[in-house]
Amino acid sequence: MIRAGRIQVWDLPVRLFHWLLVASVSTALTTELAAPESWMGVHIAAGTVVVLLLVFRLVWGVFGGEYSRIASFLYSPRRTFAHLRGLALRRPPHYLGHNPTGAVMIFALMAVLTGLVATGLIELGGEEKQGPLAGILSYALGNGVKPVHKVLAYAVIGMILFHVAGVLVEGALTRAPLIRAMFTGWKPVDGDLPPESIEVPRAASPKAAALWFAAIVLPGLAVLALLWQLPPTGVLHPLREPLLDSECGACHRPFHPSLLPRASWAALMANLSDHFGEDASLPPDEVKRIGDYLQTYAAEAWDTEAAHRFSVVSPDQPLRITETPYWRRKHAHIDPAVFARKEIGAKSNCGACHGDAATGRFDDQAIRIPIQNP
Amino acid sequence: MKRVVTHSFHLPRLPLLVAGIALLATGVAAAAPQRDAILAALAAEAKAADSAFAGFSAERGGAFWNADHTGGNAETPSCTSCHTRDPTAEGKTRAGKSIAPMAVSKTPDRFTDAEKVTKWFNRSCKNVLGRVCTPTEEGDIIMYLSGK
Questions:
Q1: Buried residues in B18-52 as b, exposed as e (16+ CB within 10 A)
Q2: Does B127 contact chain A (CB < 8 Å)?
Q3: Cβ contacts (< 8 Å) between A250 and chain B: which residues?
Q4: A241 and which of A293, A305, A315, B99 could share a cystine (Cβ 3.0–4.6 Å)?
Q5: Is A249 near chain B, with CB under 8 Å?
Q6: For residues A110 and A50, what is the distance between their CA atoms, to the nearest angstrom?
Q7: Cβ neighbours for A160, distance < 8 A, ≥ 6 positions apart
């Protein structure tokens, strides 16, 4: 669209895409870096929005308006270097749409975001046993991509800073109102179009774009929904052992068997007369029944994050779950006064804050720290 | 539209009520014989250990219950460390789990399951005193808490 003295460079879908991406990526970064772990649901929702935005942008990159089309900002290396050289000399060639340096950033950002959502989905399925891939991925894989997810997230922060700096620099050098244009879509044109601009801008085909978007997203969703039906790998559903509930549960909320390895459970059951300073003796037949249950469903039998984490015990106190390196690290930021609250009472009362402690899942979203009631 | 009125079949109410109360009464009463049997067994043991034994005392039981002892876990020197000084109140284990009141008036089935009584006296006495309790001490405590 060209009107007297101005041209619409960014069509509405591209502007919406840009600001929704700003919102969803900011939300994902904030929930990971600054929010408590119970906000993981918001992090996942933000990541899901990023996936949909990425698919949309690719489709709109084919069927959108001239300046939205990927083909319109695929520049040769020569032109990219010419633009960089211009930047260095403080008189970059003026482009109405994405300039070559900006285009490099866009492709890089799209690639990194794709990597982020992919590794996020793998982490979610493998490590957290949540989401559509929980039924096919192992903890080892989910945990393995974790550093990649982290590095890509820091890369995105760097790219955002670089992008904003680039906009400020280009805006200063070309005097173009770049930020306003990302809200209104319009850029002013003084007399003739800049020499690098396209003579006859192509129009968008929203219908084709909508069809292609649906053609990609719907089957994708169908596949994920089917995979979602699979039970998560390595998450067992043992029948409860009534003796465990009545005998262990008489003094403390029974711990999930996956929270210690077999060797620790065996040592613990062999010394009930001195059970963390208490006499908790049981008749031999009951010791055997509870012991057998704990051996069957100890950490080694599961593929959950909790089971893997807690199978690494403290060398000095191998029987104490609350002394494992992972437990200590994850609870280091919690004030000791919180554990003393009436609703919690002790560090060992997992279920006071972890709503799903009895299942052994320990989902981040299930964490609710009770507020002290006077 | 025609309303269908169904006449429900009424059981005679009064006899049912009487039967219910009777059932409840036997339930409550049935608890006491079991406690009496436990006390009787303890009394026999006490007598065997000391021929001068002349019955249990709620007063002695209360003094024992509230006293600070030595020899057990330093964190729990007294029965009241976990059960609190008020037997009609809920107690709390070291692990933070609440314990139903020990007073029979609040928890009527206290001291009615001989196995459970033995198990918990053995454990708790070791935790507080570092030894098992004598039959006299156990009987005194049951007397004390039965009157609370």
A1: eeeeeeeeeeeeebeeebeebbeebbebbeeeeee
A2: yes
A3: 93, 97
A4: A293
A5: yes
A6: 10
A7: A25
ipTM: 0.72
Shortest Cα distance, chain A CAs vs residue B92, angstroms: 9
Domain B13-146 - what CATH class?
Answer: mainly alpha
HSE at residue B11, side-chain half, CA atoms within 13 A, is 6
For B120, name the nearest residue in chain A, comparing CA atoms only. A280
pLDDT in tens, A268-281: 999 999 999 899 99
- The answer to whether the CB atoms of A253 and B97 lie below 8 A apart is yes
In this prediction, residue A173 has a pLDDT band, given cuts at 50, 70 and 90, of: confident
Question: Cβ–Cβ of B73/A253 closer than 8 Å?
Answer: no
> Touching check for A278 and chain B: CB below 8 Å?
yes
B95 CB neighbours in chain A (<8 A) are 251-253, 345-346, 348-349
> Do A358 and A236 meet the contact criterion of CB atoms below 8 Å apart?
no
Domain shared by A30 and A117, yes or no: yes
Co-location of A28 and A126 in the same domain: yes
Given CB atoms, is B75 within the 8 Å cutoff of chain A?
A: yes
Domain closes at, from A228, A250, A279: A228
CB-based contact, B122 to chain A, within 8 Å: yes
Lowest-confidence pick of A82-91, A118-127, B20-29, B84-93: B20-29
Q: What are phi and psi of A230, to 5 degrees?
A: -70, 140
pTM equals: 0.84
The domain boundary, picked from A189, A205, A228, lies at A228
